[in-house]
């Protein structure tokens, strides 16, 4: 048993949650996690993310070191767009097994990757970063004929673009 001087107060926490356990729970707010990030980094989720990030970047570096004349920032001499796309496709094919193992994902990459022009992306999806997982596309009713409802004739006569998206029934 330890002896304490008479003028010192001794307190016992009793049964309290340790801060590390609170940070691991989903109830911890962002401010608390940032204030004690040295403890938050010990959580299983963040440890897994850090290990994945490290392994991912290491795999990219190993690929680029084995490929003569390439660096992590892909400085390629006398390269055109097709050369850069080919190198990035090869890089992602090389890294993909690591991603699949960590994420338990069974999706296989197929090369060459599908490509789309800027004008096609804007006209079909209304965005230069389309999400092609969904089958929804814009179309112009004036070019596609009847759409099942009347379009104001003034709009058609002005040849204005009317983007429509049809949802499958």
Characterise this structure.
- With 169 residues, this protein is mainly alpha-helical.
- Among the domains are: 19-103, no CATH class; 139-165, no CATH class.
- It has helices at 19-24, 30-35, 37-40, 44-66, 81-103, 118-125, 141-144, 153-157, and strands at 138-139, 164-165.
- The radius of gyration is 28 Å and the shape is flat.
- The N and C termini lie far apart (77 Å).
List the helices and strands and how they pair.
Layout (H helix, E strand, L loop, with lengths): L18 H6 L5 H6 L1 H4 L3 H23 L14 H23 L14 H8 L12 E2 L1 H4 L8 H5 L6 E2 L4
Antiparallel strand pairs: 1-2
Helix pairs in contact: 4-5
Jot down its keywords.
single chain; 169 residues; mainly alpha; two-stranded antiparallel sheet; 8 helices; 2% strand; flat
Short characterization:
This is Aminoacyl-tRNA synthetase class II (D/K/N) domain-containing protein. One of its GO terms (cellular component) is mitochondrion. By secondary structure, the chain is mostly helical.
